[in-house]
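Researcher: Here's my situation. A collaborator sent me these components and asked whether they could plausibly form a single complex. I don't have experimental data yet, so a predicted model of the whole assembly would be a useful starting point for our discussion.
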Amino acid sequence: MENTERKDRVLSMIQPTSVPTLGNYLGALKNWKQMSADNDCIFAVADLHAITVRQEPAKLRKQSLEMYALMIALGLDPDKNIIFVQSHVPQHSQLGWILNCYTQFGEAARMTQFKDKSAKHADNVNVGLFAYPTLMAADILLYQADYVPVGADQKQHLEITRDIAERFNGAYSPTFTIPKPYIGKTGAKVMSLQDPTKKMSKSDTNPKASVYVLDTPDDIMKKFKSAVTDSEARVHYADGKDGINNLMGIYSCCTGKNFDEIEAEFDGKGYGDFKIAVAESVIADVKPVQDRFNEIMKDKAYVEKCAKEGAEKASYIANKTLTKVMKKVGFWQVK
Ligand code: TYM
């Protein structure tokens, strides 16, 4: 019998502000790949979000294409999933504006990412940075997504998305699916290798703090060897051992081993051996992605064709939701 049940719809996006870090990879991208096997998936390059911080135009263009190619290299099939670039689908900006009018100033002002980013870019606290969560809500709600796989840092943005959706549904009639975050048990918050109390971030100025998915195996090894740990020299998970806890989390994500197994494996061994093993597990995980990425980048016409088709498919779905919303809000529609 034909299975006519609707699959869950999964949606997520990533900013093309640099090559993804190991944090992006373990916290989000790896889950995208896993979820794409049996869900109806939509993934995108969030370039509109990227300009909330000043970007160099040529670099942004190049990084957007590379991020798109990397998503294919990750194993996301552009024929089976919808993969597109946010600015290619104008409905995101359109719904973003409407949702601004259904979001309170106080709600947006409470976002910790807004507070962090405005402190970091004090000379450019623009309105876009403030409205960042309403655009993200539009990204998700346009596609009626059931699940949104993200790292722990995006949880608050998912909560405000749910609040906005419920408010709109309550004011009119059910319009938006209420999305749920999907946050993995391990990898949800990969920390900096140089200051393990801080999240690993694309914008870290210390080159040893973040590992990037396209780093050479040599660089990956060097970065892990210089990772900050503690003086206990025993591989086990405990409060206050932020550096080791972080490395154990990374190793667990790349090998599938749980913390008990990891502790047993490194019983009686020093941090030197452990750091090498963690680096090797990361290299083994990302190397096939790097090889596929280098192949795909030889055929830019293919990448462009996929992005064009992805935007057309996304736009078709986005338009259905946007039309409904515009009708409910009361915009005069002419045929
Ligand atoms: P972005 O580009 O900062 O990060 C992409 C994804 O990586 C996750 N992440 C991490 N996970 C674990 N450890 C870390 N150190 C780490 N750093 C980042 C993020 O949680 C994210 O899942 N606002 C989003 C992009 C976006 C989006 C969306 C996401 C725009 N629209 C709609 C989901 C749905 C962002 O800036 O992600």
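Model: Some features of this prediction you could bring to your collaborator: The first helix runs from residue 22 to 36. Residues 11-15, 23-24, 27-28, 46, 49, 136, 139-140, 148, 150-151, 153-154, 188-190, 199-200 surround tryptophanyl-5'AMP (CB under 6 Å).
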